[in-house]
């Protein structure tokens, strides 16, 4: 799925229409899913978010932000980075209401705590804040 959507807006739209987003979010949030699977789901969701503004709206309608924010609680750095990369893509879209970042008072302090994890966490979090 990942290889089919990267760089192909038509395939991204097709996957969204076919209902892949709820399934990806389901796998992303399952405790029984491996960290590798969760990371791949976050990567595919991030690729879908890099498509059109309608793609981002569809992702927001599926409540992607709470699922990705929950992923930031993982101890796995690669998974955290994939969630942050996806969040960055969503929050840099003009269709995303920025107040979605502030609905939970614990999010900003947690993002601040993640800044020192890697250069990628620093980059993605700074882009989310901007």
Short description:
The chain has helices spanning 2-5, 9-17, 20-29, 35-49, 53-61, 64-71, 77-91, 107-114, 119-129. The protein has 130 residues and is mainly α. One of its GO terms (biological process) is proteasome-mediated ubiquitin-dependent protein catabolic process.
Order of helices and strands: HHHHHHHHH
**Radius of gyration computed on alpha carbons:** 14 Å
Mean pLDDT rating: 92
Q: What is the fourth-level CATH superfamily?
A: Leucine-rich Repeat Variant
Give the uncertain stretches in residue-range form: none
Portion in beta strands? under 5%
Count of strand segments: 0
Number of helical elements: 9
InterPro entries: ARM-like (IPR011989), ARM-type_fold (IPR016024), Armadillo (IPR000225), ARMC8/Vid28 (IPR038739)
Protein name: Armadillo repeat-containing protein 8
Keywords: Cytoplasm, Nucleus, Repeat
Main location: cytoplasm
Notes on the protein architecture:
This protein is 68% helix and 0% strand. It has one domain: Leucine-rich Repeat Variant, CATH 1.25.10. It is mostly helical. The protein contains nine helices and no strands. Helix 6 runs antiparallel to helix 7. Keywords: Cytoplasm, Nucleus, Repeat. InterPro entries: ARM-like (IPR011989), ARM-type_fold (IPR016024), Armadillo (IPR000225), ARMC8/Vid28 (IPR038739). It is found in: Cytoplasm; Nucleus.
Provide tags for this entry:
130 residues; mainly alpha; globular; repeat; nucleus; ARM-type_fold; ARM-like; Armadillo
Architecture blueprint of SSEs:
Elements: H1 2-5, H2 9-17, H3 20-29, H4 35-49, H5 53-61, H6 64-71, H7 77-91, H8 107-114, H9 119-129
Helix pairs in contact: 3-4, 4-7, 6-7, 7-9
């Amino acid at each position: 799925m990942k290889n089919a959507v990267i760089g192909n807006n038509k395939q991204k739209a097709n996957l969204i229409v076919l209902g892949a987003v709820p399934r990806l979010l389901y796998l992303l949030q399952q405790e029984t899913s491996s960290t590798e699977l969760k990371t791949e789901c976050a990567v595919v969701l991030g690729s879908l978010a890099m498509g059109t503004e309608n793609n981002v709206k569809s992702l927001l309608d599926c409540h992607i932000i709470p699922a990705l924010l929950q992923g930031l609680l993982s101890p796995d750095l690669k998974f955290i980075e994939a969630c942050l990369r996806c969040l960055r893509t969503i929050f840099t879209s003009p269709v995303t209401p920025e107040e979605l970042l502030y609905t939970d008072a614990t999010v900003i302090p947690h993002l601040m705590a993640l800044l020192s994890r890697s250069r990628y966490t620093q980059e993605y979090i700074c882009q989310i804040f901007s």
